[in-house]
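The following block was generated as part of the benchmark described in Methods. Ligand: 5'-O-[(L-methionyl)-sulphamoyl]adenosine.
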Amino acid sequence: MILRSSISTACCRPVTRLPRKNLSLYSPSTKPFFVTTPIFYVNASPHIGHLHSLVLTDVLARFAKLRSPQRKVIFTTGTDEHGLKIQQAAKAQGVEEGEFCARVSQRFRDLADRANVGYTDFIRTAEPRHYRAVEHFWNRLVESGDVYKGTHSGWYSISDECFYSEKQIRQDESGKIVAIETGNEVVWEEEENWKFRLPRYRERLLSWADRPESIHPLSMKSFVTSQMASVEDLSISRPRSRVRWGVPVPGDPNQTIYVWVDALINYLTVLGYPASADGWPVDVHVVGKDIIKFHAVHWPALLMSAGLEPPRQVLSHAHWTMGKFKMSKSRGNVVDPIAAMDKYGPEPIRWYLMREGGSLPDDSDFNLDQLNANYSVLAQQFGNLLNRVTSPKIVQKMGSITSHHPLPDFDAALSSARDRVEGFMSNHQITKACEVILNLIADANKLVTDMRPWEANNDATIPVLYAYQALRISGILAQPFMPVKSSEMLDRLAVDPTQRTWNDATWTGRSGFDALALKEQLSRSLPGSLFPRLNP
Ligand code: MSP
């Protein structure tokens, strides 16, 4: 058998330099890896942006488990059910708030389940355990001397559930007064409420924000520090006469705890707070860029006041747009995630969200052509290579002719894939991690195409070996992204279920490789279609 000389170098792209690692995030530890999604408002149905937050967090949680299987993972999500926005949404539907929240909350839970999101707890802020945590936390703030009763006047946005100052609003083209940051309408409110002495924490906040890992991506840091520099006392309750759907202020039943304070405390409730806070601090709070201020300014200060450590990291992702506008119910440009998963399957949607939306600083425009193209790539690359490597016609030829032609680029690509994925994941370069996985498969397909193992006089052993290793290693590394499809793929390759760990995602080269054992293994492979043709 003669290999065409071009194969050894042309099959594979040169291995790119490894990114800087932030190993501490995923390295083995006795502290659980604790990661959270924001809890979702139940005023409207879930859309693809919500699914993005869920999938991104799930990918981090699954990666942590793959990387350090002994380390406990706590991954929490849930629904944010209090406040004026929800109170009004329930009223608009003529339903009592509790019933309304239970119904919409279930839709978020169904969404997470359908998308194979492996949360360990789903919290609803209407639960009694959460009331207990909020009341206790409030009392800690009071004890710290950071809370006082005063009057507050400002521009309130029901949609954003927050006050804005005079400097943070403007009049839009239609004459409405809106928040500059979000464009949402605001109304002037003057009321008595409880306030939190946020400026007391300015210096500590700034030094927390200054740690390299606290805010990711770094491009968000200047926004956060500018917010910190100008903080004022924070209104942390609303008169019950205005907002009756929420947790009453302990000892002051005429006031309701501000919905953002209530909601942020969910991250402690899930640990069993106040009885336990085992697992604290959070390793990564995943949030959309629209809510970073609450997580990276208000929340760390509240935690400091309550005597708890601030989060290790707040990770902000950009938005999915449709026609370049942020998806929103009022604009009517939302993508229904359930319909998308019905058509493409949950895992191709997960892959699409991470591959196209995984470069966290930039918005991504949801686009059906791009989604279809991503699906075709999955089918043509993963599906096709799997079919080739398990084709009885090719497998039966293994071992008969063996070339010893070196494929150094390919060896390097296989042996370094795991480290490159880890490097990218440690820096939250999710799109790049997806590309390492995909490139391994694409290069293996090219090798097979070039070596034509189906032809009578050509070697099948080497192309099948490399293609198998590419599928096996990328199948292991793809588990956080497509947990079900990856295991389907590894099952089809007859990879032992106990050999799908981080330690197994390696390649030590061809020496000692037993072609007949692989031939026997692949002859046991299962038929199937990994990414079937879509119904039109
Ligand atoms: N309830 C608050 C969070 C409280 S956490 C203590 C909230 N809820 S939300 O339902 O409005 O948003 C939940 C998450 O979905 C946020 O991270 C938000 O950024 C994200 N997304 C909402 N629309 C989005 C897109 N169009 N694209 C990507 N994510 C977006 O805020």
